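Hi Y.,

Following your request, here is the sequence exactly as I used it, all 296 residues.
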Amino acid sequence: MHITFICTGNTCRSPMAEGIARKVIEEKYPDSGITVSSAGLSTYNGAPASQHSIDVCREIGIDISSHRSQRLNPEIAANTDLFAVMTHSHARILRQFGIPENKIALPDEEISDPYGGDEMEYRECREQIAKAVEMLLAGLNSSDEEIVIIPMKAAHIPQIARIEAECFSTPWSEKALAEELNVPSAVFLVAISRGTVAGYMGVHHLGDCAYVCNVAVSQAFRRRGVASRLIEAHIALAREAGMEEISLEVRTSNTAAKALYEKFGFEHLGTRPDFYSQPRENAEIYTLYLTKETYQ
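Below is the corresponding structure, written out as tokens. Let me know if you'd prefer a different format.
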């Protein structure tokens, strides 16, 4: 696999990320077959790394003094398996270039450009990059289908909104998803693969009942057990929180989802006529009684 780290000018953030990644691969994953490089979206070829970037990398034993900038071009794109970007705006530009979603990795938190800042700002940026690179490489070298389940953060919301649009005729907006971050009863988890949101599941804990709002998996990650991993994680959280049951609705025609819920011990309790619109359809009510020990 070849990873290209992307920033704007390819003189600060992405060269630091490239240098840090080389060191991490050498020390932790020498047999992974992963190679790295970096490029900029708005730069010219041949510019050196900024002096502050060189200095703060040297502090941790990394030499990027020989780096020279390069602008992203079709040849680089063709030879890249995964683009690791610094911000959502970088990801949007890559999508405009036709790069598919499953080849773009976003950090949990956007990494701001330190250009024009002092050495302390560059040092803080380096630490943020190092954390993101460590997480990315750990995910790529995970043996469990590279899927990690973590709580939803604001940085995940644009990707989740795109998955919603893929999966549902009336998708949740970014605004609606963001509002859930401030709802005390909301428990939203995301499945991360190679830094990309593969799917998510939202649940509200109301009294002793957990109510499932949505389960959605990106088309690029279907049939890889993502939904099962999310359901398992939520069942474990509901048990820890003392919930007695988990309830949800599913379209009558969604036989795959119904089979999945039944596998986890959900019982079919009834039907809500015309519950869904676009198209209009009945909803089947399913409930998992956690106190009955039905979950295997």
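The mean pLDDT is 91.

Thanks again,
Q.
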